[in-house]
Amino acid sequence: HDSHNHEGHHHASGSLDPHIWLSPSYVKQISLDIKNTLCKVDKLHCASYTENYQHFLQEIQNTDTKVKELLSDVKKGSAMMVYHPSWGYFAREYGLKQVAVELNGKSPKLSHLKAFIQRVKSKNIKIVFVQKEFSQKSAQLIANSSGAKVVAISPLSQYWSKNMIDTATFIQKSYE
Description:
The protein is of the alpha/beta class. The protein has six helices and four strands; from the N terminus they run ααβαβαβαβα. It has helices spanning 24-41, 46-70, 88-93, 110-122, 137-146, 160-174; strands at residues 79-82, 97-100, 127-130, 149-152. A four-stranded parallel sheet has the order 2-1-3-4, sandwiched between helices. β3, α5 (137-146) and β4 (149-152) form a beta-alpha-beta unit. The longest helix has 25 residues, at 46-70. The radius of gyration is 18 Å and the shape is elongated. The model is unreliable at 1-14 (pLDDT under 50).
């Protein structure tokens, strides 16, 4: 299923951003595909797979509703500054713009950092998201020079719903 246009979702290496699970629309489609495949290969337990799928679908819907509610007062097109460009699908799903500090998988040069600091100030960005898996030096420098706060979030969290809601909460609070 490919109802989404991938344009603008490039990952650090120039390949497409693989973090599709940060979009509830994609998660719905992926979970349906998994359920259908499991039912094909294990017909005996299809009712159980279907029941679990229905429960998860409800969780996806509840999460999506909560995130939309949290972001309802955040102006469409607002920037979310991230160190590593892994939140493109989340940003697109909720009408935000991902601004990545990392350039082509590398920490930015000093000349780029100055431009980022100006961008953070001009767009009044109050938060820079980092992942503990990556160096936080550049993000910390940007934050210290602009008054923004560094917050650690991970697109790889096993607690999908909580992670989505926490991210939206940080964004909402930073735009209050």
